[in-house]
């Protein structure tokens, strides 16, 4: 495009075919970016980038500024968005693995108790105090899982607040 090409010609080259008119539309851009998106990119990301490219082309047409500069702004916005997604995934990885480990701990404890011959299953299912302990444990476990899920959802929303924006 720096050497005289148009945004429409660049999209045609990416699509591998010619369009009927020499105009960039959001639908055409969405089609091209959906075809070219990576395995780690969602269809929503492709649509957002297509919308941003379409808007950049319209701004360039209306204001008369260079299309390349407008598209550079879209590219840098996309790069920041990818960086934010990577940082969010890294920030949430450790809490998720900790939750998995702590969620499995009660079952592991019972299995180890059985292996050592302590008979936790006989106690839990064979006596009234055991059934009370089991009921209290299951209730606390369920409440704890719900609480941790709410915390993780809140953390995900707080960290991922930039994803919820619409241009």
Kindly describe this structure.
It is rod-shaped and about 85 Å long. It has 2 domains: 22-83, no CATH class; 91-166. α1 crosses α2. It has helices spanning 7-15, 26-36, 43-63, 67-115, 120-126, 128-159. The protein is built from 6 helices and no strands. The chain is mostly helical and 167 residues long.
Query: How is the main sheet built?
Result: none
Number of helices: 6
The rounded distance between the terminal residues' Cα atoms is 24 Å
What is the number of independent domains?
Answer: 2
Shape: rod-shaped
Question: Spans of 5+ residues with little confidence (pLDDT < 50)?
Answer: 162-167
SS content category: mainly alpha
- Roughly what percent helix? over 70%
Strand content: under 5%
Radius of gyration: 27 Å
The total count of strands amounts to 0
Q: What pattern of helices and strands is seen along the backbone?
A: HHHHHH
Mean pLDDT: 86
Transmembrane segments: 101-123, 129-148
Organism: Bifidobacterium catulorum
Protein name: Pilus assembly protein
Keywords: Membrane, Transmembrane, Transmembrane helix
